Amino acid sequence: MNEDGFASGCDVAVVGGGIVGSAIAYGLASRGLKVTVLDEGDRALRAARTNFGLVWVQSKGDGMPAYMRWTRRSADLWPAFAAELESLTGVGTEYRKDGGLVYCLGEADLAAQGRKIAGLAAQADVFDSEMVDRAALERLQPDARFGPDVAGASYCPHDGHCNPLYLLRALHAGLALRGARYRPAAPVSSIERREGRFVLATAQGPLEAGRIVLAAGHGIPRLAEMVGLPAPIKAERGQILVTERLQPFLRLPGSGIRQTGDGTVVIGSSKEKTGFDDRTSVAVGGRMAARAIRILPALASAKLNRTWGGIRVLTPDNHPVYAQSATHPGAFVAICHSGVTLAAVHASEFAAAVAAGSLGESFEPFHARRFDVPKAA
Amino acid sequence: MFRKPPDRPDAIEVVVEGVSLRVPPGTTAAAAALLAGLPSTRTSPVTGEPRAPYCLMGVCFECLLVIDGVPSRQGCLVTVRPGMTIRRQEGARSL
């Protein structure tokens, strides 16, 4: 391993080679830093390979305006980010920014979504979604025939979607082209601070790094406590169904139904507390399919090709955590479930902060101390 | 390419791309399409290239056909019935 300099160290070691870690590492490498990405193997829990592929703005940040602005900034940066990745690597991400929909079944559902939208709008001026009635919805999705229960939707023009597998492939190709090293099958067992640098024990030997970024999803907690970082993470299973390829009929992605660039329709997104069990169940898949058919009855005749489960990386309030260690300067952590949506800001602003050595004030709202119980009432 | 078995009294008549064809009972729709001499039975929705039945045992999905008006059926897993209509599948189906 010495021939390619594995043991000779790097400026930043990024632990985690999914979409979050790869986007951060890509941003660091693009800033000229010597970066090594340490990843697990094929059997790792990997939300980057199981997620739905939305670049999603409209429902994010309830209770945390900073997260709402962070998400919007990423969506604003996404077109240039996707274009840069494609021109650099030749790998297109199928990113489209046509807006996105949350379908409402029945008038009560429509009213409830309207109240939710109004509540979000009151929290930050950056919020930009609106309710659309059925007629307006039909104009937005002219090739779709909606079921009788569809009363309308909420619509956000900043929403979009991509192919998350191509995104991951593009990021990895970009990492290589920007001079970063990627190490699969190199899980980290321990991290020590030695003479102002970090020494990471990996399955492929030790790696020395000036700074470290923990971005390994559910792999974070074990490592975080070694370097004085918080890791409030909970697991949540989501299941996804995917149909055969169909002629294009859904121009806009929806919160639980989108048609991909190659014509398949992806149906999600359930929420279950099953620990790290990422299997699927007919009961949940059946409910997802039934709801999709209420929205788009023609889907009843579409054939399902595949179904899978994935484990979301969530914090207690579902908003991201970004933090730097007080006891181990140079150690950073990034925990979020919106790796696709936030890829553009992870590669730009988060990477810039790590490169500068400090997260700074703008990241304060994202610190995990928001979960600390107040000492005095 | 394929030699048609001798006709028999219990043969079943199907319609492949509008042409009537008598096949032995137990024949699959994919085999009927091959016996009919179709140069290909579908085009790939990804590349548009012509495809034809391949594994004939339900694994490869190359034999997708429109059978009795229902698209995306695996022809090798469907046994013929009298009067069955079998058509090629062009690209991705529409809903």
Structural write-up:
The complex is a heterodimer of chains A (377) and B (95). Chain A is of the alpha+beta class. Chain A is built from eight helices and 17 strands. Chain A has helices at residues 19-30, 65-89, 107-121, 134-140, 164-177, 220-224, 282-295, 343-356; strands spanning 10-15, 35-38, 54-55, 100-105, 130-133, 150-156, 160-161, 181-183, 188-194, 197-202, 205-214, 234-245, 257-259, 264-267, 304-314, 321-324, 331-335. In chain A, α1 links the parallel β1 (10-15) and β2 (35-38). By secondary structure, chain B is mostly beta strands. Chain B has a single domain, classed as Beta-grasp domain (Ubiquitin-like (UB roll), Roll). The termini of chain B are far apart. The model of chain B has no long low-confidence stretch (mean pLDDT 94). The chains are: A alpha+beta (377), B mainly beta (95).
List the helices and strands and how they pair.
The complex is a heterodimer of chains A (377) and B (95).
Chain A: E1 10-15, H1 19-30, E2 35-38, E3 54-55, H2 65-89, E4 100-105, H3 107-121, E5 130-133, H4 134-140, E6 150-156, E7 160-161, H5 164-177, E8 181-183, E9 188-194, E10 197-202, E11 205-214, H6 220-224, E12 234-245, E13 257-259, E14 264-267, H7 282-295, E15 304-314, E16 321-324, E17 331-335, H8 343-356
Parallel strand pairs in A: 1-2, 1-11, 2-8, 11-17
Antiparallel strand pairs in A: 3-7, 4-6, 5-6, 9-10, 10-11, 12-14, 12-15, 13-14, 16-17
Chain B: E1 12-16, E2 19-23, H1 29-35, E3 42-43, E4 50-51, E5 64-67, E6 70-74, E7 85-87, E8 89-90
